[in-house]
Structure formats: C-alpha cells, structure tokens
Amino acid sequence: MLLNNNVTEFILLGLTQDPIRKKIVFAIFLIFYLGTLLGNFLIITTIKTSRALGSPMYFFLFHLSLSDTFLSTSTAPRVIVDVLLNKTTISFNECIVQVFSFHFFGCLEIFILILMAVDRYVAICKPLHYTTIMSHRVCGVLVAVAWVGSCVHSLAQIFLTLSLPFCHPNVIDHYLCDLQPLLKLACADTYVTNLLLVSNSGAICTVSFVVLMVSYVVILHSLRNHSAEGRKKALSTCISHIIVVILFFGPCIFIYTRPATTFPMDKMIAVFYTLGTPLINPLIYTLRNAEVKNAMRKLWSKKLISDDKR
Question: Which GO terms describe its molecular function (predicted)?
C-alpha cells in the first residue's frame, strides 16, 4: 500500500517546546475539551429526550453536536496526553487515522451546516410544503448521504497521501497530523498531489461557504413578508447559523484554499476550528434558542425530582 516508505513514525513539534507554555497548553486544551464534551452532551441528551425538539432542525443539530464531539476528540485528547507525558511521536498508522477522522468529521460538519440551511430555507420560504419536503424519511436520507459523502472525501485524501513515499526527516511542525505538513515530508514531487488535495478540501470549503451565504441572504430577504413575531424568531435562528458558519469556514478556507505553504499562525488557527468552534457551537445554539433552553430546564427539573424521590 505504501511506496518506498521508510518512515514508521513522525515527531510532532506541537504548539510549543517551552515547559511553562506546555502547562498552559495542557490546561487550555483540557478545559476546552471538557467544555466541548459537556456542552454537546447536553444538547445530544436534550434533543433525544425532549418531544418538543422533534423537528428536522433539531435532528440536524443533534448530528452537528455529534460531529463537533468527534472532531475535537480526533485531536484534543492526544495533545493533552502528549503534553503531559512529554511525548512527541506518533506512529505512521496513527497519523493516517488522525488525518482521516479529522477530515471526516470536519467535512461532516460542513454537510450538516448545509442541511440546516436547507431546512431553514424550506421552513421560511416554503412553509406550506415544509412537512412534506422535510419529512423524517427525507431528513434521515440526507444525513446518511452526508456521512457517506464525508467518508468518500476523507478516503480520497488518504489514498492520495498514501501514494507518496515518505523518508527522513520525519518532523511535523504541528500539533496534529494534517495533509499539508505531511506533503512537505514526502520524498517526491508533490505538486499534482497538493493540487488535488487543495482542490478537494478547498473546493468543499469555498463552494459550501458561498452556497450557505447566498441561501441565508435569500432567507433573510424573504422574511420581509412575515409577521413581526415570526420574523424575529426566524431571524434569531438564522443569525445563530450564520455565526457558526463564519466561525467554522473562515479558518478552514484560510488553511485549505492556498498552495502547499505553511505559516506560523496555522497552528493557532487550527486550534480555533478543531477545539474552539466545537466549544462555541453549543453555546450559540443554547443561548440564542429559547426552545433548547426550555427543554434543558425541563430535563434538569425532571432529574432533580427523580433524585428527590430517591
């Protein structure tokens, strides 16, 4: 499967080599990761247990929280352990698995955000046909297509990477295995491979972002025909989605739509969309959504009542 591969492991330089800063990195990643798990777990549990959150929007939000959880899990735990144990090596196979999982759940998040925009468009622009168009069966099929599409995207990236021969040096100037740092270590001309990789990830990010922004412009434009109360509710939901889209796609477009060059700021930007965005998303969807907050209160009240009966 590998061509002339003499590398069995890579050395990750991480975010810093300074012992004091490593402790800061450990604390930040641990707090952010635990916050991400807690926030997304609350959303997943609330949606699964609340009958009031049975609409397609919350079905998609459930899968967005799943992708957020797995996206941060693909990177954060290893960084936390490596910093704590001062371990800087990762095996070749573990590196490839991390690349696959990282891109799989990142791509899944993109597709879920698109489905959420489609749901809002149908709900606001085609309200009379909403239940027919966005039926449970249709939503299930759309999410299944999103999972399969994400898998195809990641497999394409992995197959291109595995076609390259790797030799020494094996030092990756990053805290995770990603495609662009790996291409710099290949013992072959990577121009065509990089072009294909950038076309793949870059096109998905850019096209999806443009489609999402255009769809929300259309949605916001159509709100002028709604009542003041309906307009306020729809506007609140759409603004939440737009904030999430900008926070996630901005860093991704910066990283994946340029040639095979790396900048010192790349690692910090990667922290933002691998750890920051999965933490921010639950806050945005709970703080700006009255239905989710009410469902969480009811769930918490039921738990307190059941605990008191015991």
Answer: G protein-coupled receptor activity; olfactory receptor activity
Question: CB-based burial of residue 291 (10 Å sphere; 0-12 exposed, 13-18 middle, 19+ buried)?
Answer: middle
Tokens of 289: 């959504």
Does residue 19 have a cis bond before it (omega within 30 degrees)? no
- CB atoms near residue 285 (< 10 Å): 24
By DSSP bridging, strand 9-12 and strand 89-91 are: antiparallel
89 bridge partner residues:
11
Q: What is the mean pLDDT of residues 159-168?
A: 81
Does residue 1 register a pLDDT over 50? no
Domain ranges of the chain: 9-309
- Geometric angle at alpha carbon 236, from 274 and 56, rounded to 5°: 70
Using DSSP's 3-state secondary structure scheme, residue 62 falls into helix
Residue 304, Cβ density class (10 Å: 0-12 exposed, 13-18 middle, ≥19 buried): exposed
Quote the tokens at residue 124: 């606001």
Residues in the chain: 310
* Percent of the chain whose predicted confidence (pLDDT) is above 70: 91
List the beta strands (DSSP E) in 131-282. Answer: 171-172
